[in-house]
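Form 12-C: Joint structure prediction
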Amino acid sequence: MTGVDVVFGETSATDRTVEIPLSHLSVELGHLYMEDLADGSVDLSAYFGRIASWTGPDQLADLARVARSRLRASTCVLVDDYAAAPLGPDVVVPRLIAAARSAGLTIDYIARESGCAAPLGGAGPLAGLQPAASLADLVESLIVADPAAGFNGSRPPAHENGWLCNGVRSPAGGARQAMRAPAAWQPPVENRAHRHSIFLDVEIWREQGPGRLWSCPFLATVWQLLRLGQLRVLGQPAVTPVGIDPDDLPATWAQFPTIARLPGRAAPFAAYRTLSVLDGRFLPVEHAVRMTLGQVAVDPIVAEQTLRRAGRENVPLPAELPDRVGHVFLGG
Amino acid sequence: MGVEDGGGAEPGDAPPAGAAGGGSRVLVGEVRTGLLAHSRALTEPEATAVVALRPGFQVRVSARPVPHTVSPDLTLGVHCPVPSASGARRDGLGTVLSRASVTGGRLVQASTHARIILGGPRSVGRRRPWAHHLAHPGGIEVGGRLSADDLADGFLLAETGDGPGTTLDLGAVCGRLLDQVQESPILDQKPPFRARRTRFRFVLLPCGPPSAGEPVCHSGSADTDTTSDRSPAPGHVCRVGFVVAGETVRTLRIHGSGLDLVSVVGLCEDLALHDWLLTTVQHVVAGSRVRAGGGGRLPSQLKPVIDHLLHVWMPAARIGEELLPVWTGLEQRPGFSRQWESLVAWIRDQLALSLLAGLGDGAR
Amino acid sequence: MILFATSDKGGTGRSVTSCNVALRCALRGSDVCYLDFDFGSPTAGAILHVGSAARGIAGGRGLHSYLEGSVAAPAELDLWRHIERAELRPRPAGAGRLVLLPGDEGGGEFPIDDEMIIRCQRLLRRLAEEFELVIVDLSAGRSYALQLVLEVTARPALQAMITRWLVFHRWTRQHIIAAAGLAYGEHGIVDTGAAKGHDRDRLYDSIRFVRTAVPDPESSQFAGLLPTQAAWLQEIDAELQKLAARQRVGRSVLLGSVPLDPVLQWREQLIIDSDVWTLRIANLETNAALDALAKDVLDEDSWEGL
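Section 2 - Result
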């Protein structure tokens, strides 16, 4: 009897993770608070003009580490509608498109911040499933906190609800057994500080009403992860851009897609790397974003797919997420 | 001479550029096994829900030969000295991976492992940022000199784990995960009988000459040294040492090269599962022998074992070709299946006797 | 089953009686563990003849350390290996497991925080998974320990488990009133439990009483009494019975009575067969009462709703 080599496999035993199209670079063309748009205090044309001088094709190709002729880059804007939205898409979107165009820029995608906190699992392959409450909940579950020296797994990771930091907090005067001395004050310490600590403690969310109010830096982290194409829900893309017609826009953001694709020949939304050109006032937010990104562990299968594809395309790509994120901060 | 990663779960895991060349890698892990806190066997959707521990991640389900559902991996960061038999304090930084599984709708396991990479830079200042460690999940980079055997001995021979102490405590991580699964609201907390959890600790070391610390001849009631003379080929096992280190603690030391780490963890989970079955059924049988009712009545403790456990025995069902020698070795000595069959035969005899006695009563 | 042993006053013999119940249940084949939640004075080791843990366990791995979060799991002492009484080693044939979780040597009372509640819940649930009987011996009175376990047993993971309460009291007027107060009075078990989310009726139904140091006028101890003295004893006993009934701690919720016995009173240790038969220092009645108590603790009928 000859040996028969039997290969047995069950499809459900191996997970399938979908790859999504990737550009070389995702360029965020500034960020404005809703108030800036509402009160008309910002000269939008001048604003986009300053951004344009940092996003020329040579500069972008250089940042993406590919030849200019090969460069696939897409541009995007995130609308700050989470906290309050006095203006609807029918007002904001045409204004942004026109101002960008006057500076010679094309906006490929417009996203809304509230989409990062909205319930997931409505349509498409995720219909009927409730895999995670929202993108923000999903990303929060991906956080693997940077352990303080001495953390050996014997206790659950210390967490202050809704906060994330880059080191060890000052010890609080906690409960002690009767007849024991109280503890003395100690300074906070940054993990792997370079001689001195720059300790950062970031609010991720706060309880408000029946649910959570997510912080701006955390939603900005979700936004970066979406742009880096690293989020999946049960192996499916967490969000897929939806085409919109600029002449037929809804009046409320709830009716607007989480990521909208404007007409035109846009490169894919997600990219190997991101560049955000922002006002200097966003530096603290982006500092918090980088710190949070550095403590997010995405699905290893997704991470591997991305690295492998970059290798095939000959695009140099760092394995660490914060190193894929670039910023230009504009002075006043 | 390092144990090479099979690559299965270690995406883009090239050897870290800065790490001293020749730094060897040791896989360490622990599996805890127990009886699910539920009155009946879970259905597949229930078992899936119990191990759906991460939002947005898929649970792996396989139906054959025994229903088996596995949670997505959970990652935990650690920064502490790694175990060492000689007492050397070498700091490690990285992550450990854990997962939980339900088998046959009845048994629950938690397993935690880490790939310890020896020979990194000593000073903390030269350490990589945390994001680097998250990009290589399940790896702990250790600064300073430490031999693989020193580490393995320290890990396998640690008194109890869970205790006060500062070194890496995989057992605590694993135990917490098992608690978390058992606390699931899906479970009714009414198991058909009480059973102890077992702890199964394992290490995977590079092939090399046997060191002073092994094959371990400490206290164990059984140990095995399976030596294979096959020429080194990709993915092979050189030696295995299995020790029953107490009522509920077992240790396994595998020397091999080119093995897929995920498969090794799977093998250890499978071994731990069968060892738990053996331990638990043996305990029940021993109790029944002492307290046997006589008159051909089936000792009441045996019923749940027959109802819930006997059919779960399915050794080496999910084991890859290159790891089969480990099972084969353990089948020779201590002889898992032999012992199991003898226990099952005894239970069947009791069942037959009770049936006969029942018939006799009916005839009267 | 998780069984909480409590008493309003100290000196009721709660700990020594519970230890004896634990031993007897294990000898009858059940797997039993005993947790010393008398945080201010962790001395269960002394009662159970474990010299190394007579005042709690050294090395920071007892229940105090666990609840405070400095160890991942508290030390578990297999009593069949640690009891320093030759008659009980090795493990008697047919006996179940008998395990002690001692407090920390030098441990004291501590206030309760949320993390502690989670740890306590986790521990009790795990032990109930492995043991048929988990006895938790609580500090006397309205203590942090009592507050902690009332909080923990209201949590979903433990609500599904069988949790029961034993209130120990001496057979005196003051003790009867105090025991009833602890169970049903203001800030008592039922009151506090209901405030923390327990089902009031269910909690009420899960409480039973154990009378300790009960003088038995029929026993040989009192054989030499004058008729007037005997009559007086009978009269007092009858009055106490009436009082107990009025206080809702009468016969319907009585799980057992343990007679007045010098070995229990003075030595505060385990009573085993050799004490009764060879040494003749403990009373046959005490032995029988402890046996009956152990049997009733595990008998579902004793816990039937009222």
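Section 3 - Comments
Residues 261-290 of chain B form the longest helix (30 residues). Chain B has two domains: 2-274, 276-363.
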